[in-house]
Design goal:
The protein is of the alpha/beta class. It is 51% helix and 17% strand. The mean pLDDT is 92.
Length: 227
């Protein structure tokens, strides 16, 4: 490739962005950058410190003491918080609400934005999140909006959590996803929305393999246009 290529995948919570992007990255030889994991790391730090997630000033005051990094591992992206691998800890269900809250704060977004853009400027990346095409990488070569119905996303999330051994209630999981959708789409800073140039990929009624085949087709066709 004569230049670095960037692929942006946006979409709501539980749509499978990270899982799909990780596999696409391996198949096409791109670095997968899970930006949601970075916000989860900040949320985890706030939760561990006993900081009220709605206390904007307190959350922002923490930032200078945080070192959040994303590195490649044999299992994909490993997320580090002050030198600790928190890749599993940030996936605990309790961290989700913290991640959604802190991601709405301008200082937190600025804190992570520079790292995300620097990464895309130095290598071929596939980056997923909620504002990648609209804010982080508006000039991304390929833009995708991956979504699915609330019911299907809740079912997938419930299965994921129970497989990890967490005790959760299916209806509670659904309500949490609905609350996350509302918070992400109505926040003042970089709300979740589909970029006008993003191709829509709705996997509500598709199996994982069918959904992956759809995204692979979109990426393959996109790469044929830009290379």
């Amino acid at each position: 490739m004569s230049r670095f290529i960037s692929i942006a995948i946006d979409g709501p919570s539980g749509a499978g962005k990270s899982t799909m992007a990780h596999r696409l990255g391996k198949e096409f030889g791109f670095l997968h950058v899970d930006t949601g994991a970075m916000y989860r790391a900040v949320g985890l730090a706030a939760m561990r410190a006993g900081v009220d997630k709605s206390d904007k000033a307190a959350v922002e005051a923490m930032l200078p003491s945080l070192d959040v990094r994303a590195e490649l591992s044999e299992n994909g992206q490993a997320t580090y918080l002050n030198g600790e691998d928190v890749s599993l800890a940030i996936r605990e269900n309790a961290v989700s609400a913290y991640a959604s809250a802190v991601s709405a704060y301008p200082a937190v977004r600025a804190f992570l934005l520079e790292l995300q853009r620097e990464t895309a400027a130095t290598q071929n990346v596939i980056m997923d999140g909620r504002d990648i095409a609209t804010v982080v990488l508006p000039n991304a070569d390929i833009k995708i909006y991956l979504t699915a119905s609330v019911e299907s996303r809740a079912a997938r999330r419930y299965e994921e959590l129970t497989q990890r051994g967490q005790s959760v209630d299916a209806e509670t999981v659904k309500k949490e996803i609905e609350a996350r959708d509302l918070a992400d789409s109505t926040r003042e800073i970089a709300p979740l929305k589909r970029h006008p140039e993003a191709e829509l990929a709705d996997t509500s009624w598709l199996s994982f393999e069918e959904g992956y085949a759809l995204l692979k087709k979109i990426v393959s066709e996109g790469l044929s246009r830009v290379l």
